[in-house]
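REQUEST ID: PR-0412
SUBMITTED BY: lab tech R.K.
PRIORITY: routine
TASK: structure prediction, single protein chain
INPUT:
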Amino acid sequence: MKLTNHLRRVLAATLLGLGCHTAAPHAQNIMLHLDAPQGIDAQTLAADIGTLKITFSNSKDFFDTSLYAANTLDFGSDYYNDGNSSTDRVHKYYSCKLTFNADDGNGNAWWGNKNKFEFNFDNLRRRVSGRAGQPIYYRIYSPHFSRIITGQIDPTDAEEVTLHHTELVQARRVAFMPPVGRDGNAVPAILAPDLRIGTCNGFRGYAPNMQDLTEPFARYAYKGDTLRYLVVPNSSELALHADSIVVADTTTCVTTDYRKAVECRFYIADSQGQLCPVTNGQLASVYYKPQPGAKGKGNYHGYGCYNLGGIFLNTLTAPDGTHAAYALPGRQTFQLRMPTVQTTDPDFLMPYNADLGYILGEVTIPASTEPVSLSIAQSKPLRVTTTLADAAPYADHLQFSAHTYVNPPYSWQENKQMSVEYKEVSRQIKGNDLVVTTLVEGSTYPYLALDAQYGAQSDTIASVLSKQCCLYSYPGDPRTEFSLTYNNFYDGNFNTLPAFSQLHPVKFVVPCHQFQTGRMLNLFGTYNQGYISDLPSHHNGCAKQLQPGSADPIPYDTITIILPEGEYDWVMQKDIDEFNNAPHHGFTLGAIDTLVQRLQPTDFALLRVSCLGSDSIYVYNNVPASHGYRQSKYDNTKGRLYYADEEIPLRPGYNERTITWREVKLQKDTLYSLSCWFEAPITYVDEDGSYYTSYGRFDRPYNYLWLEKLETATADSAICISTGSRANLAVWSGGTFAPARFFTISPSEADTTVTVYTQKTVRVNFSYKGGRVPGFERLNMCYGNEQTRIVPNSNFYRRSRMDLEPGHYTMSGVVAYEDDNTGEYVTTPFSIAFDIEANTPTTIELCPDPAAVAAATADSAPAKAAACYAPDGRRISTPQPGLNIIKMTDGTVRKVIVK
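STATUS: complete
OUTPUT:
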């Protein structure tokens, strides 16, 4: 009987299994077989390559090598996983190893997974967060292969799928050997097997798609392919070497032999073509051939750019003192940073052609057994004579400069403005005209700029005069002498300028602290059909200080701006809000010599706050009623906690306030250790515009004071609050279910004492309708007759319990939760009072009491708002999202947070 029942169970299970098997897709197990290059023995392949990495993904984006180029990534990385992969919630990757097998049964080596169960389609799909019915993509990359193998796995009902790749069968081996130095010994180096996809900054840090060449490195490519490679020796006398080979049908060995290198001596030619020895600066070997789509990353220009700036060629020098290095024959690029030369050419200007003081030069190195002299660059001075009609009155103030615009690899940014060498030859006054002759270095595409200067203590900053002139008419312009007039200079919109006879200086007298606090003079005006808007800032040399106690404590400075005749409007501003609210000033500039515009004390407020031995300066161009000053600091050296939160009244002109302090003494029993800190009282605004408080939980800040268990009082002056501050002193024993106590400290000049924790706490559980407390939309809990606020920590919301001192408590607020039956968000007001007895754990039920809630609401009708201010003191019509300062009709001030 038992055997019969057993057979029935087995038969039923078998039939049930067959039914499920026919109704559902088969599990898909995957075998991957990658044939190794033929003609290479297994031992060599194992030594060269070993195991391979295969990466699966739910996206085929990592097939696209242009994405790697655009982000300067190593091809061995998973594109979207580079950096912080946790930020990408869409593209997922899973990598495994493909083991090397010496024989597939036919004498051929191959790579593959260990068994068919290792790659299961459903498991892979879960690992890469793939969608049902969608393929899984895979990628096999090795720096030893010249090609990347990719593919996709489509879902199928087949139990087993074999992926067979034969791409590498015809690959041939190219062995790169460590370079040979001048002495015949190997030189440490790194290799770019494909110089189009590598980059480095010397031997420092990141070097994508570069390989160590202290040992031989094998690259497998295809017969007839051209391999363009680059070798970077770690040497202070050997230049890098770029070359190419065509892959043959047999193994090829590539050795970079610097015994065949040529001693190269580097010079900069003067304007007459004479070679000038380079006796200073930093010489380096570089290769800059940026690839299409490649973008720089950090200190890297991107694929195809190799900067050996960290390996200076400073060991070898020629007899005349110029820099020298060994380089193999061919085209080669070198760079010099901040060089100096020996020259007798009076017109010599350093031919910088790259930003940050660099000269890049490409030279051809001939095959030679003797040293060769090479010119990296040549000085090309352009003589420019500029005649400025009616500019004689400004002869002492007009100045010229030169610049150009460069792009990577000549700079780290696109269209970067770069200074160009220039010098003034002569400055003459002819009648009422000013004639200035300058030399400008013309190796790049230079611009001559015209500006003005009124001395170290009073800068001229004017869009009207900050103009430029491009010297060349077209690339390759052969001219070396130029004659310009005022009409050749233009601004960014190609607006020409009025004559100097229509220009006049305007002096703007402005408090220095306007500029020191980040403000600028915004000037608007018209001339002809043009429109100017400039944001001149103060010169860097201003450091004038306030002079408290003097008749005029505010220091001023003069900004002189040369402007054409017309109507103007100006304002001091830091941002668009201040531009809209600050006083604007208008004036008419006519045919006069000088006009003075002064920012009057009635147009701004400057506040100096002296606190804890240092001054803080605040500037307002739209004078508010008050300034909110806040300071929270814990002085670890003195063990003191400082807190200030005051509204300081403001009036136009100069204001000052010295923050004075009073002590809050904290006393306790030896039952618990404590931490304490200050918090600003916060009032929230409801949707109907009424105000309410809610102390649902607390978070202890970084600035707090600690009192040990056996200490019964804080040290003298350990807790200091400013005399004008209203704040909550928060005290917490640190227990898992211990709430914090918030004591309200009102403005006063008298010291005060707060006594806490004189009794042992009692464990109190809370429930709502017999179950766990779901949560609160609002909560206010108070202890004793003094109405000390009790504020729970986060554990209360997980376990519905608090450790409370014996005494009387009131608790009110709004319970909030989602109804399990209806899914609706339910809010229920409540208000209760209870007493906690010593040594008597208890449970408090938060049962709604509509009558008590109604009475509490009637007794706490909110005061009306009289005025509303932003945190920076600006008066606003209605509360805005974030913190607001509300002045009430009863004279109190509330800090209100609008959600």
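NOTES: The longest helix spans residues 2-23.
REVIEWED BY: pending
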